Amino acid sequence: MKSSPNKGVLLQYWLSGALGGWGGTSDGKHKASTNAGGSVHGNSRPGAAGGGGGKVGLSGGLTQPAGWQSLLSFSILFLACLAGFSSRLFAVIRFESIIHEFDPWFNYRSTHHLTTNGFYEFLNWFDERAWYPLGRIVGGTVYPGLMVTAGLIHYVLNLLHITVHIRDVCVFLAPVFSGLTAISTFLLTRELWNQGAGLLAACFIAIVPGYISRSVAGSFDNEGIAIFALQFTYYLWVKSVKTGSVFWTIGCCLSYFYMVSAWGGYVFIINLIPLHVFVLLLMQRYSRRVYIAYSTFYIVGLVLSMQIPFVGFQPIRTSEHMAAAGVFALLQAYAFLQYLKDRLTRQEFQTLFFLGVSLAAGMVFLTVIYLTYTGLYVRLLTCYAKIHIPIIASVSEHQPTTWVSFFFDLHILVCTFPAGLWFCIKNINDERVFVALYAISAVYFAGVMVRLMLTLTPVVCMLSAVAFSSVFEHYMGDDTKREKPPEKAEEGLGPNIKSIVTMLMLMLLMMFAVHCTWVTSNAYSSPSVVLASYNHDGTRNILDDFREAYYWLRQNTDEHARVMSWWDYGYQIAGMANRTTLVDNNTWNNSHIALVGKAMSSNESAAYQIMRSLDVDYVLIIFGGVIGYSGDDINKFLWMVRIAEGEHPKDIRESDYFTPQGEFRVDKAGSPTLLNCLMYKMSYYRFGEMQVRRGALTPPGFDRTRNAEIGNKDIKFKHLEEAFTSEHWLVRIYKVKKLDNREPLDHKLRSVVPKQKYTSKKVPLMLGGEFALQVWRDSFRFS
Amino acid sequence: MTRQSPLLATCLLLVAALNLEVSANGLVNEEVKRTVDLSTHLAKITAEIVLSNQGHSAVQSFILAVEEDLTPHLAYIGASVKGDEEEDGTLELQQTTIPGQSGHFYKVQLPSSLAAGAQLKAKVEMTFSHVLRPFPTHVTQAERQLVVFQGNHYLYSPYPTRSQTTRVRLASKTVESYTKLGNPSKNDEIIEYGPFRDVAPFSEDTMKIHYENNTPFLTISSITRTIEVSHWGNIAVEETIDLRHTGAVLKGPFSRYDYQRQSDSGISSVKSFKTILPASAQDVYYRDEIGNISTSHLQVLDDSVEVEVRPRFPLFGGWKTHYIIGYNLPSYEYLYTLGDQYALKMRLVDHVYDDQVIDFLTVKIILPEGARNIHVDTPYKIDRMPNQLHYTYLDTFGRPVLVATKNNLVEHHIQDVVVHYNFNKILMLQEPLLVVGAFYILFFTVIIYVRLDFAITKDPAAEVRMKVASITEQVLTLVNKRLGLYRHMDEVVNRYKQSRDTGALNSGRKTLEADHRALTNEISSLQARLKAEGSDLADKVGEVQKLDGQVKELVCRSCQEAERLVAGKVKKEAYIESEKTLTGKRQELVSRIDSLLDAL
């Protein structure tokens, strides 16, 4: 039995070793976990219970506990990476290797620009195809880390003559980095607790939906690589606080630099680390290690972060970075006092201390006055007003998080992580102070904004892993060994209770894995560029209307044609149709967006004025009434009105678009302003003649999204004409006609066209099956 | 006919004055049957000519002529001799000129000379692209597409023609107008001209037909066909196609509603077409810059693979699209080998859709790395570009790429090209060896890195720790071995109890003693070393040693007990009793040793 461990024994190794933890923590409290490593050896060693033959057959490396241990950790970590990578491939397998959603299209486009034109061209890139007529300086307004990473990988692969298309690099970048995140989370948790917890944390972060939501294959966005950088920076920070070595701190700075180049969320790091140092000072945990680590980090990190063009001088100017500077000064002062304390007598020291304190108070006072003069204070206060600007409020990922989404994204971890936090606080040390602060601040931010759920996810995984690891350690140690000294029988826990608890925990973990897979597959793996619907017999229809329309634009319009659309589609039009857009997802210019919103919500002639002044050639809208797609422009329309009203309160009033009862209706009862505005007319042009579903008792012109028969069926355009409508009417493109020079004659000619006969109906627009559209994703962006 | 006479006269004059060669031949077109097929977007003109030699000597060749206006559009010209039984004999054509005459001329080499007075039936095929001009040039979605064809009523020939008829096949019954030379008869889609008698050489008379033609006017404005040969059994083919609807341009709005509801709305637009791929084509993909085109269908038939290519959007007049279609083929069907010599026989251009027109073709054939002495046999003239190099997976010095281009191709150009080259089979090993080498270097570096110490400073504590760890490891193995000795001794004792062989027992005891002493000494020396390193583990090892001494004693005791039992000095029950206590004690000791070892 011992010489050839069967599966059961192996499982026991795995459970007791991997989950119970065997890492050598420096912490005395965890001698038990160190012993667990021995228990693995005890099992594999012959003769412990006086039976069986020798075990000479196994190779030398594996007879040693260290060999087993590293092999097991390596394979578990490897499997976690693999699981993290492959569970993100649902969309690629179901659909294809394609860039998802909105922002990734911009990132892809700029990466493409980088790979074709080189790095300097990319940094100096002035994109004249965005924000017409303003343009956009791309190099100075992006975090280039993502593009440079993808470009670098592509470059290296091509150098090795591995001819991978840049699109595939971009698509698979996020899953690859998720694998790396698993490794960095493992490292960080190992520093905080032990190796077993680290492995568990790696497994959690690999599959937790809260992270998968931002890193599926094709979701080529900053967050995909930023979480890796975040975790790795924290690991190096913890390492440098632990060792007090400049080597680790410089590593931390480089990692921080990478993070700054990758995501605006670096502000989280530059506030959390000073907070950590500050709290350590408060807790009387100041040491030379902390001093070395933070002083080096602040100086080098500051200089490095200022190398990113988009960040520039922000780290010494803006309020977000002031905490770091303050803590730096405080730490220097503290260290100086410590130094003086050794040199001076008590009396001298006290006088000096009071002098210093009063000086510092005066400095602070002067600074405040200075800041007030320069208006920084005002800005600091008004940044809260940002929340009330409609364009920010309109993005659904800026909404406060609901409890449901906490559970949806984290499942059981959200319940277990307070336990992990408690374990950490109970056995506090320098680095556990850090993780506790990390947890608390991340919870706060996640509660403010759905989007910041992402920063909470890693710490939840780590702390839950600590909780699970401690429980397993407690209940799943080597039974035979523990029981032998009867005085150590833990609080009278029998093997039954132990196995029940273990089974329960395993059940939880299993349910967690199932939930993660389900959520990933159903909620987070839709490219949203391609829609799919399922018929009753399970066959799949692909609705490729977006690409159909974008590709039509790309192929059959003038190369410099300007396309007006709501800002959501700006990046996609630029990426897929390669045409000039007026506004896009960058949303840096509110008044420009408001102008587009005003054009959409005005009547045709007023809109024509605006469109003429903006040189618009085509107008693109999304219309879901035929197939029941809820993320269309009519549903977003109120936001357009609101944003337009914000800038043009005289021309646009939100109340005009409601019925006297205060309802937003598209049917006959709807307000006449709505029924005659450009967006309404473009959406429902010729829709009034259309019988959406044959056989059912719906009148022609029945909007399936809003379940209403439209109110204005007689729509005629004077200045626009339909240029293209996709197969399921999802995307409609209108051409803005040039000014007529013979107005009355033009009308006569147009009426000459003989009336169409409706005798032969060729393609019944029966869209088979219910369209179980995945509106989940769309609800993320209803603006 | 009267209208024709001045021209005829000039022609005759010219012939007489300038072209002695032609007239000297004495060839006469006895009877000509022309068919002008205008039912697609191509003009296919076939002429069946009965040629008679009325000269005095036999002729080896005759001359075909193409009108000046049509020459830029000529995509294909071919001639064949119609024998009595066998329908065969494609003839070789050679471009030539006739001074003073406009147009292109082709000299057709006859398989056997035509004796004086003899007759010959020849069939001439010509295909012209882009000769049907849409008129009006812009139509709305509801309108139908009308086109104009301008050609020649007569066969353009350097020889006089005795009698000829021209039959024009149209795409539809609706004809706006057509020239009425010789009072033609029109029957549904067919207009028949002639017969015309005694037509002079080089006579031209404009035939103009304006009719409805709603067949898809698809044109491949450019196609790049890449054939990548791998000696590992695969040929990858990829075609990048730019497609344009060259019919009447869509005017005004495109209404999806009308397009979906009315069958005659956008009648000349292209929804989809079929591309026929070779039967062994696998892994077919159809995509463009923004991804897979999900509207296509694939059908595998017995002798081919049919792809229903449906562009993302219907193609109306003037609209264009761009896509990539690619597939893999097994190389054994196309690659022939003899020793180091290889021959690749592939279609230079393949089927994209029926009656295809290709304006510009680029063919790239990527041969394996190391292919030498490349020689290409093309079925027709094609412009070779300088060879390029292509790098892909695991390439070091690049694969040779043959590049060739050609303008204006039609279905007749779907013919095989043969590429001969030499390839040393040893080179096949290069790629696997490269991979092996790379991995070797990788592992070797890791080994070097792990085994060697690259630290600049020495960390004595860590060194000591490692030393202690290795010593502990040795101690563990030794202790285990020692415990094994006791088990072995137990077996010896058991055997002794059965066999009562005192000699065996004694010798067993002696080996135990010896081995035990050796092991114990070794452990004590290790213990001493541990102590020297300053590790507190030395005490633990000492404790283990002490406990082991007790175990040893117990083993000896049980041995003695057994001896006494065998000698009959103790009763069996008493022996079992004492044995039990001994084993119990031993178990306890061993477990204590275990726990000590675990703590090491």
UniProtKB/TrEMBL annotation, chain A:
Domain called Oligosaccharyl transferase STT3 N-terminal: residue spans: 72-463
UniProt region (Disordered), positions on chain: 29-52
Keyword Manganese set for record: yes
Catalytic activity reported: a di-trans,poly-cis-dolichyl diphosphooligosaccharide + L-asparaginyl-[protein] = N(4)-(oligosaccharide-(1->4)-N-acetyl-beta-D-glucosaminyl-(1->4)-N-acetyl-beta-D-glucosaminyl)-L-asparaginyl-[protein] + a di-trans,poly-cis-dolichyl diphosphate + H(+)
Class of the enzyme per the UniProt entry, highest EC level: transferase
Protein name (record): dolichyl-diphosphooligosaccharide--protein glycotransferase
Annotated EC: 2.4.99.18
Entry's Gene Ontology cellular component terms: oligosaccharyltransferase complex
Localization in the cell: Endomembrane system
Membrane-traversing stretches: 71-93, 137-157, 169-189, 195-213, 263-283, 290-310, 322-340, 352-373, 403-425, 432-450, 497-520
Pathway membership, UniProt: Protein modification; protein glycosylation
Membrane topology type: Multi-pass membrane protein
InterPro entries from the UniProt entry: Oligo_trans_STT3, STT3-PglB_core, STT3_N
Cofactor(s) annotated in UniProt: Mg(2+); Mn(2+)
Keyword line: Glycosyltransferase, Magnesium, Manganese, Membrane, Metal-binding, Transferase, Transmembrane, Transmembrane helix
Family assignment from sequence similarity: Belongs to the STT3 family.
STT3/PglB/AglB core domain segment(s): 563-619
UniProtKB/TrEMBL annotation, chain B:
Key words, A-Z: Endoplasmic reticulum, Membrane, Signal, Transmembrane, Transmembrane helix
Biological process (GO), any one: protein N-linked glycosylation via asparagine
GO cellular component, one term: oligosaccharyltransferase complex
Extent of the signal sequence: 1-24
Keyword Lipid metabolism: no
Subcellular location: Endoplasmic reticulum membrane
Spans traversing the lipid bilayer: 432-450
Subunit organization: Component of the oligosaccharyltransferase (OST) complex. OST exists in two different complex forms which contain common core subunits RPN1, RPN2, OST48, OST4, DAD1 and TMEM258, either STT3A or STT3B as catalytic subunits, and form-specific accessory subunits. STT3A complex assembly occurs through the formation of 3 subcomplexes. Subcomplex 1 contains RPN1 and TMEM258, subcomplex 2 contains the STT3A-specific subunits STT3A, DC2/OSTC, and KCP2 as well as the core subunit OST4, and subcomplex 3 contains RPN2, DAD1, and OST48.
Function: Subunit of the oligosaccharyl transferase (OST) complex that catalyzes the initial transfer of a defined glycan (Glc(3)Man(9)GlcNAc(2) in eukaryotes) from the lipid carrier dolichol-pyrophosphate to an asparagine residue within an Asn-X-Ser/Thr consensus motif in nascent polypeptide chains, the first step in protein N-glycosylation. N-glycosylation occurs cotranslationally and the complex associates with the Sec61 complex at the channel-forming translocon complex that mediates protein translocation across the endoplasmic reticulum (ER). All subunits are required for a maximal enzyme activity.
Protein family according to the UniProt entry: Belongs to the OST1 family.
Protein name: Dolichyl-diphosphooligosaccharide--protein glycosyltransferase subunit 1
Organism encoding this protein: Sparus aurata (Gilthead sea bream)
